[in-house]
Amino acid sequence: MTRRATAAPLLGAQLVFNVGFYAVVPFLAIVLRDDYLLSGAAIGLVLGARTFAQQGLFLLGGVLVDALGARRLILTGCAVRVAGFGTLALADDLPTFVAGAVLTGLGGALFSPAIETLVAAAEQARPSASGTRATLFAWLTVVGETGAVVGPLVGALLLDWGFSAVAGSGAALFSVTALALARLLPADPARPDGHTLRAGLRDVGPGLSLRHRTFVLFAVVHAVNLLAWNQLYLGLPVELERVGRGAGAYAALLAVVSAVTITLQLPVARLARRLPSRVVLPVGYGLLASSFGVLAVAAAVPATATSLAPVTASVVLLTFGHLVVGPAALDLVPTFAAGRRLGSYYGLLATCGGVAVLVLSVPLGALYADASATSLVASRPWALLAGLALCSSVAAALLLRRPLAAPPLDPAEPRSPAPPTPSPSKGPR
């Protein structure tokens, strides 16, 4: 397997996947609120369930890739997401709509680890691995964020024909992409005798990371990163409603997020690598806290012609914080794991984020119900988020001030090296 044979279709798939995702999913909250008249808590539950179906099942996706093959999981994940978008397009009642939203997340849980596993294989096949791996994964992020810029703009345009047109277009896009990938991706290698799904589950060994108490604490601390990022879809539309802005402003702010990520991801990551984790992570979580602190103050101030300024500042701070803590946390995982069972450790990191989103989206949604009108009450959800991120900043500083404890003993060495597991936030959506 060579980079020429696999990188181009994988990068193209990342671009198309993110166009399709961001054309549909960011508008779910608007449909749930305006068409189904759900409360903020109910919207939070639906969006939390969708996120958990993807991020919370990330470890399962990695296990299935190991047991069944990356190509098969990519095509299966595409089929599941097509089913999810199709269900959203055809839904005429709330249970069906919710089922479609959850299916979209499950599809991502299947194909995200498969995509990045093939990218890692393409990098390893190059004669000189040093310096190449980061470049290929960086390009994966860049093309993905380009899709994240285009997607909301496409979705906002299609929304004039109704959300069914948006979701139906997403289903069509994933269908065409799946057909192309079926022709372009190399066949999965033959699995050795006895290498079954049960064997894959045994090889990943998720129990090892769960017994590493220091890492479990770190995963809980880092869960605030995904929770904060999820507010782009749950909380940001509420604040825009408060200041009298609609879908166009929402799409523009998501484009700002992607533009900042595309231009600054690599410089920020390079700078962060020069500093110790005990400095980088507390600063990053502090940036997340400051982003919500801005909105906590702004929500108590009557909307004016310049009310979009604090929202924009908050989004930029949130993006900076995400760019800082994401690579730093992932770089630290192999140190926790001592190079063993990385799939288990990365999977637990992603699952903790998914659980945080699922559990906390409901109370946050209830608080958002009173945040669409200017008042001190409207500041509560943003103050809560700022407090959680600040707690993570302090906890990270305390947790990392001493050398990390060694992981627990592995009762059995894995049968084969586990493939690199992708970032919880940077894989295809």
From TrEMBL:
Q: How does it sit in the membrane?
A: Multi-pass membrane protein
Concerning Pfam families, the annotation shows: MFS_1 (PF07690)
**UniProt keyword annotation of Transport present:** yes
Check the record and name the InterPro entries matching this protein. MFS (IPR011701), MFS_dom (IPR020846), MFS_trans_sf (IPR036259), MFS_Transporters (IPR050171)
Q: Which domain of life is it from?
A: Bacteria
Q: Which UniProt keywords apply?
A: Cell membrane, Membrane, Transmembrane, Transmembrane helix, Transport
According to its record, what are the GO cellular component terms?
plasma membrane
Q: Which residues cross the membrane?
A: 7-30, 36-53, 97-122, 134-155, 161-182, 215-236, 248-267, 279-301, 313-333, 345-369, 381-400
Question: Major facilitator superfamily (MFS) profile domain: from which residue to which, for each copy?
Answer: 6-404
**MF annotations from Gene Ontology:** transmembrane transporter activity
Give the location in the cell: Cell membrane
Region (Disordered) location: 406-429
Query: What protein name applies here?
Result: Major facilitator superfamily (MFS) profile domain-containing protein
What taxonomic classification does the UniProt entry list for its organism? Bacteria, Bacillati, Actinomycetota, Actinomycetes, Propionibacteriales
